[in-house]
Amino acid sequence: MKIVVPEVQISSDCGFSPDIDIFKRKGFGERLANLVENSGGSPVIALDSGWGEGKSTFIKMWRGYLENHREPEIISIYFDAFENDYQKDPFLTLASEIYQLITVEDEERKTKFKDKAAKAAKSLLRGALKVSVKVGTAGIVDGSAVDVAEKELSNLVADQVDDLIKERFEHAAKDKLALKEFRSYLSNFANEVNGGKPIVFIIDELDRCKPDFALELLEQVKHLFSVQGITFLLVTNREQLEESIKSKYGQGIDPTNYLHKFINVWLTMPRASDEYNDNGYQFLQNALSAMKEENDVIANTDSVSVLNDIVKFYQPSFREIERILSYFSIVNNMLGNQRYLENYQYMISMVCYLKACQPNCLKVINGKLNSSHIIEAARLDEIASSESYNLQYVNKLVRFDFADEDTRKQMLEEREIQMNGMRGAPQNLLKTISSWLSEINPS
Fold first, then answer.
1. pLDDT at residue 258 is higher than 50
2. Which sequence ranges form a coiled-coil region, renumbered to this chain (predicted)?
3. Listed range (83-87, 122-126, 250-254, 347-351) with the worst mean pLDDT
């Protein structure tokens, strides 16, 4: 059995193919596309979802739908903020992505775009008193010039700094005009390129990149790139993005109000979790199927049933479910075809969940596990009222593990715990199974 869930392969033109769109998000994708097409103006839309909830997978399918399965077609630009947060200048980074829409043969448009972008870049950089810009024939701005100029600036004497300040004042009007002309040109460009089809600029992983880069991107989008014909879709985890704002400006700032300045509409990625349609359960089943090799047999099937109920109850993210399954696969591979008794199987599932989602509670201190930490992390009081027999029994097993001898005896007499075939079982089942995984940490 594979210990890592294989990555879903999504071709650029598949769209919301039923075999890939297991959460049936096509309807949401269609409504989002209609919003982009019909909103008019230059809206900035944010798609909010937790870490590991399938945002990037959805975006890959959505892009295929926009460009291959929809009429009218919507042109999309994809930008991974996390992969590009080493970039020095967000303006040039975003402008370069739009520049790629120009066909190779359209030399006149390419030249004009570079000219407008270079003038705007000079104005921005002069305003920040950071760097000079060198316009190159191969691209918009030579990035090496940025690095060199930043180093040289620190060596300037006072008179040279004064000259830079004077230059800023002298060019203020021209700089303002250059930025205005860039916005005007960009709007015309958006309405002319590719036959005037709508353009959506997707910025993904905004919550994962460096705080400074994320906030500079927001400001550049709102003030320079948000023009008629281009809709921005920011894909992020709102809570984490708000933490980036606090990191930059201090705890006194209201991050919600700050984001209102840049984002017009917030949308939330749908995740079904009702009795008859649970996306976590669906993901677990698909992932397990993908991890099984040909002729693989999971001998301890009770563990899978418990995992199903754990996912439905705790609602871990899809990324966390992948980690749970990695630990489960490791245990399954260690056991081979050996079928363990029911109590072991139930506890294996709980340990895999705690190891993946609440690892700190399984730390052994002075040779012992902290029972109160585990009871709190496992939310055993809530499990007790769960309708799932599996979870109720797991609850009893964990409490039995940490109970004193009198309580253990009482639980056995009242048949709360079944010990058939468990002669010689370890005193603490949870600790024993946890020790199997103590040195293993799949990434």
1. yes
2. none
3. 122-126
Q: Per-residue confidence at 154, pLDDT binned at 50, 70, 90?
A: low
What one-letter code names the amino acid at 440?
I
Torsion of CA 167, 173, 176, 177, to 10 degrees: -120
The whole-angstrom distance between residue 207's C-alpha and the CA centroid of its chain comes to: 8
Q: Check residue 170 and give its pLDDT.
A: 67
402 alpha-carbon distance from chain centroid: 37
Taking the CA atoms of 329, 334, 337 and 343 in sequence, report the sign of the dihedral they define: negative
Q: How far apart are CA 163 and CA 189, in angstroms?
A: 36
Mean pLDDT of 101-117: 92
Q: Which fold has domain 26-268?
A: Rossmann fold (3.40.50)
Estimate the crossing angle of helix 211-220 against helix 238-249, to 10 degrees: 100
**pLDDT for residue 255 is more than 90:** yes
Give the domain ranges of the chain: 26-268, 279-436
pTM: 0.83
Tokens representing residue 346 in the block: 């139930």
Identify the pLDDT of residue 168. 63
Sign of CA dihedral 402, 408, 414, 420: positive
CA 238 to chain centre: 11
